[in-house]
């Protein structure tokens, strides 16, 4: 693969050769186009993580399960532990910069006797997590669009409105990823600037216009519980909002084969996105809590989006609240496009390793150098997840939980693989540009325990009494995923599934 001429062609060729040589040493051929730099990848990653808008989209969970104190202090706790996971993943990504991300790391780091099987299961959870997260974001973007329309026109939002609008967003993301892949880097840079601008505008506006703010006591200590469960249980449930808000920071790992100087820049993008999300999410949650009106009215707003109700409560203006909500809508729509890209690259990588039915088809790359069939499958499965909302009123919460658990399980598995490998004698040295040194295993253990705890929470029912309408079906979905992965492993996976070739990587490039 030749590099595009630049003002410094020798340096450019060296970077490209290093990226491609690492990929070749791991057993793969460079097929995707390397167009991302650090700024573009941070923008891409933050467009997905975008904690302040993600928290806005699932604010209803926090409002009902503890209120402002749980949202704020829970966010701090979740973010601190998330950093241990992000640093661990950044180190692995630097050593093994592959689009397969988590499952590829498991294949290299786990004890040899069961590395392939464990990697295969991790790959399935990774795919379900990223695709379900795309479906969740389609819902969030839909909710902001329909909520803004409802604020202006006063109609009743039906479930079929939400599902059909989510379908449309998925279709637009599919079309964009197939026909306009060349704009992804530029779009990511633009949305990073838009993201920060929207954050400042929305923050300053609600704080400046709201003349009836809540007291510090209400914000930082008054516990609210609308779940029917006991307070400790409600607090634990409330952490799911923060867990969802701080997710998807593995995105750069799945785009490593499209990043220049991937071993350095992808790990940096992972960690930078978490810090950006941490800070913006914390400030935004405090501002929302001070500006929130009646909690019951906010939770049951006709717009379906508590944040829009808070904006309207603060500004007292339909036009003002609509303008702010529209700024967030743009971010959510771009996030849908980015999640489609991340999801399709994950499908492509897993199919390239013969991890899926019809793998040869799903791993094909078009003349535009994008995996078209992987994009189509990602979009179709996202729409299938969105269809759950037709059948249950808690469909949104269920998909949030499925997405969060899928991601968190796929995050936990490489950490567990390295821990078990380390203590069983397979002490794989991670020799990338981004190394934690002697602190690596400690970070892995802390991160794993945190992820395991959050995976348990994701399966808990959110309201009581529990019935078929409000049941949390995450455990059933998880069981189905495990069953499918086991069936495919026994029938085809154990014979065909491959993974990266482990061994000594290249010297670190300075």
Automatic annotation (TrEMBL):
InterPro entries recorded: AA/rel_permease1, Amino_acid_permease_CS
Membrane topology according to the record: Multi-pass membrane protein
Any matching Pfam family: AA_permease_2
GO cellular component: membrane
Keywords, alphabetical: Membrane, Transmembrane, Transmembrane helix, Transport
GO BP annotation list: amino acid transport
Domain of life: Eukaryota
Keyword Transport found: yes
Gene3D superfamilies: Amino acid/polyamine transporter I
GO molecular function terms listed in the Swiss-Prot or TrEMBL record: transmembrane transporter activity
Protein known as: GABA permease
Organism of this sequence: Epicoccum nigrum
Upper classification of the organism: Eukaryota, Fungi, Dikarya, Ascomycota, Pezizomycotina
């Amino acid at each position: 693969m030749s590099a595009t001429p630049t003002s410094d062609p020798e340096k450019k060729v060296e970077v490209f050769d290093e990226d491609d040589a690492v990929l070749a040493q791991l057993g793969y051929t460079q097929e995707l186009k390397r167009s991302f730099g650090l700024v573009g990848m941070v923008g891409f990653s933050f467009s997905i993580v975008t904690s302040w808008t993600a928290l806005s989209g699932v604010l209803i969970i926090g409002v009902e399960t503890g209120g402002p104190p749980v949202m704020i202090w829970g966010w701090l706790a979740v973010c601190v532990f998330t950093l241990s996971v992000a640093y661990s993943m950044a180190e692995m990504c630097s050593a093994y910069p592959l689009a397969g991300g988590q499952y590829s790391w498991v294949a290299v780091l786990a004890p040899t006797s069961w590395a392939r099987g464990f990697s295969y299961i991790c790959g399935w959870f990774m795919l379900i997590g990223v695709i379900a997260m795309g479906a969740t974001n389609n819902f969030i973007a839909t909710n902001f669009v329909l909520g803004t329309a409802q604020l202006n026109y006063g109609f009743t939002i039906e479930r079929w409105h939400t599902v059909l609008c989510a379908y449309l967003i998925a279709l637009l993301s599919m079309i964009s990823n197939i026909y306009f892949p060349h704009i992804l880097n530029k779009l990511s840079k633009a949305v990073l600037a838009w993201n920060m601008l929207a954050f400042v505008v929305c923050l300053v506006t609600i704080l400046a216009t709201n003349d009836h703010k809540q007291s510090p006591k209400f914000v930082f200590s008054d516990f609210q519980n609308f779940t029917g469960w006991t307070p400790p249980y409600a607090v634990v449930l409330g952490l799911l909002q923060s867990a969802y808000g701080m997710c998807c920071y593995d995105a750069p790992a799945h785009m490593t084969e499209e990043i220049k100087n991937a071993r350095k820049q992808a790990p940096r993008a992972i960690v930078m996105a978490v810090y950006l999300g941490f800070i913006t999410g914390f400030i935004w949650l405090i501002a929302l809590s001070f500006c929130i009106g009646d909690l019951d009215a906010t939770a049951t707003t006709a717009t379906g989006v508590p944040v829009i109700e808070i904006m309207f409560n603060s500004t007292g203006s339909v036009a003002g609240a609509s303008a702010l909500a529209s700024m967030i809508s743009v971010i959510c729509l771009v996030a849908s496009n980015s999640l489609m890209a991340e999801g399709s690259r994950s499908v492509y990588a897993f199919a390239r390793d013969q991890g899926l039915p019809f793998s040869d088809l799903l791993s094909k790359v078009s003349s535009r150098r994008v995996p078209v069939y992987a994009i189509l499958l990602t979009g179709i499965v996202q729409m299938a997840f969105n269809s759950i909302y037709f059948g249950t009123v808690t469909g949104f919460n269920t998909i949030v939980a499925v997405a969060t658990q899928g991601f968190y399980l796929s995050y936990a598995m490489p950490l567990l693989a390295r821990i078990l490998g380390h203590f069983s004698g397979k002490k794989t040295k991670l020799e990338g540009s981004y190394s934690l040194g002697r602190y690596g295993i400690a970070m892995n253990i802390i991160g794993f325990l945190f992820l395991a705890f959050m995976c348990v929470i994701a399966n808990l029912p959110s309201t009581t009494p529990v019935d078929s309408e409000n049941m949390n079906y995450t455990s059933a979905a998880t069981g189905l995923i495990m069953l499918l992965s086991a069936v495919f492993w026994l029938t085809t996976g154990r014979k065909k599934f491959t993974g990266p070739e482990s061994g000594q990587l290249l010297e670190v490039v300075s």
